[in-house]
Design a protein that fits this description.
Number of helices: 3
Number of strands: 0
Length: about 90
């Protein structure tokens, strides 16, 4: 997934958002960062000059490592129980 995130270009942010929505709807943890997880570059080596994009990726990596440590450390805290689904019918 991180490789996919690095390859996204500016116009694909809506696609990235749509890819994340199912995870959010299923109460799965989503690792966040400080901005869109994108590094820009048109030619080989150009992305290495995107200091903001690289900082965003480092923040993402630190947050991902932290989440992995939290979820694998004994005793694992476990996930909170879900409430029973309350389906609202807006058509009356």
């Amino acid at each position: 997934m991180v490789g996919l995130i690095c390859l996204l270009i500016g116009g694909a942010t809506a696609t990235f958002e749509a890819l994340n929505m199912p995870f959010q709807m299923m109460n799965m943890p989503v690792v966040t960062s400080q901005y869109w997880n994108i590094v820009y570059g048109r030619t080989a080596g150009e992305a290495a000059m995107d200091s903001e994009g690289l900082q965003t990726m480092r923040t993402l990596a630190r947050n991902m490592a932290w989440l992995l440590k939290c979820t694998s450390a004994p005793p694992a805290p476990g996930r909170p129980n879900d409430e029973e689904w309350d389906n609202m019918n807006f058509i009356r």
